[in-house]
Write a structure and sequence with these properties.
alpha+beta, Beta Polymerase, domain 2, Methane Monooxygenase Hydroxylase, Chain G, domain 1, seven-stranded mixed beta sheet, 7 strands, rod-shaped
């Protein structure tokens, strides 16, 4: 399945167009807002019990509509959110509120959680690193937890939930024993764990950039600092709200998670706090790098000015002596002597050498 990579200007124009088409419509209108990242939506279903697991891949909504689940727990995953007909059918099948479907199709949501009585609706964000230019991009992932089902909606295939699928297939751990709430925890854990990979990448790039700026700052370093600032800001906008989402899930009055699953949620909450602390540490370093850059540039300018000043001072006595002997007087000392020229040159060399020794001892010529 190919992935579209439109230009930034094209993406902004598409978002403006989508927002314009949304104006004036009734709440709950199914219109996709955001970038289209897949050609065709892909619908997969995993239904499982403690001793059995079945997997399905539906090529059309008609095929999905005809399917009747057999096992107690369902996990329906959708890649591609640009076809409202698919979302409308899923909403009808699982009795989802129109506002939930609207939020899923709007891929510019901030992480949040909403309780709709029979199910929980959660929004988070995935972050990916482009291996070529180390640029960080993000995708929205929506998760719905019901009594016996979990629905996930992703903008494109990312492979980040594949480890959870493998654990289900191989029946490792307690994932088949504790029901849909444990599956939802596993998916949230996969989302949070990905943040550490992104933060590690940002930390390595920050350290390399800091060393480069301390050794020899370049004009491109300033652009790299602003790029890191934008990336950490986007991460912060996603991790901080996600912490509140997970914190609300760990409360004892949450009826969607069993007492057996809540300790695992508290562990995910601890991971989120750890990720926030790492992010804030990186932000402090990045904020200080601008001062490092300005200080390094200023120090470099001062060194160059000092070098030029030293050269000017060394040659200034020679300029003075040559100026004196260049005056238009008929009678001047040394003018009539055969060694007058050599004496003047010797005076220039002596003064220049003396000044050079003085500057060298003061370490101004390093």
């Amino acid at each position: 399945m190919s992935i579209f990579k439109p230009s930034r200007s094209h993406t902004r124009a598409a978002k403006r167009l989508s927002q314009a088409t949304k104006v004036g419509l009734a709440p709950g209108a199914l219109i996709h807002l955001g970038e289209r990242k897949t050609e065709q939506p892909a619908i997969t279903l995993i239904e499982y019990g403690e001793g059995e697991l079945l997997e399905y891949c539906f090529a059309s909504t008609a095929e999905a509509k005809a399917h009747t689940p057999r096992l107690p727990v369902l996990w329906l995953n959708v890649h591609g959110l640009h076809e409202p007909e698919v979302m409308a059918e899923i909403g009808r099948r699982f009795k989802l509120h129109p506002l939930v479907l609207e939020d899923i199709l709007n891929t510019n949501q901030r992480p949040k959680i909403d309780d709709y009585g029979d199910y929980l609706f959660m929004v988070a964000r995935f972050f990916e690193i482009d291996g070529d230019n180390q640029q960080i991009s993000s995708d929205q992932v929506s998760l719905i937890l019901g009594r016996n089902f979990v629905l996930t909606f992703q903008e494109r295939p990312s492979g980040r939930f594949d480890p959870v699928r493998e654990r289900l297939r191989q029946n490792r751990g307690q994932i088949r024993k504790l029901g849909a709430d444990y599956l939802a925890y596993s998916l949230l854990d996969a989302i949070v764990d990905r943040y550490f990979t992104i933060l590690e990448s940002i930390g390595e790039r920050t350290e390399e950039l800091e060393d480069t700026m301390l050794e020899r700052p370049r004009p491109g370093s300033l652009q790299a600092v602003h790029q890191l600032k934008r990336e950490t800001l986007n991460l912060r906008r996603s991790i901080w709200p996600l912490r509140e989402v997970i914190n609300s899930l760990t409360r004892d009055d949450n009826r969607f998670f069993s007492p057996e699953t809540r300790p695992y949620l508290r562990d995910v909450y601890d991971h989120t706090v750890h990720a926030i602390e790492s992010l804030e540490a990186n932000r402090d370093v990045i904020a200080g790098m601008l001062d490092i850059y300005l200080s390094a540039v200023s120090n470099r300018v001062n060194q160059e000015v000092r070098a030029l000043t030293v050269v000017a001072i060394i040659f200034m006595p020679a300029t003075l002596i040559s100026g004196v002997f260049g005056m238009n007087f008929k009678t001047m000392p040394l003018l009539d002597l055969p060694m007058g020229f050599m004496i003047a040159i010797g005076m220039m060399a002596t003064v220049a050498t003396t000044l050079s020794i003085i500057f060298w001892r003061r370490r101004w010529m390093e």
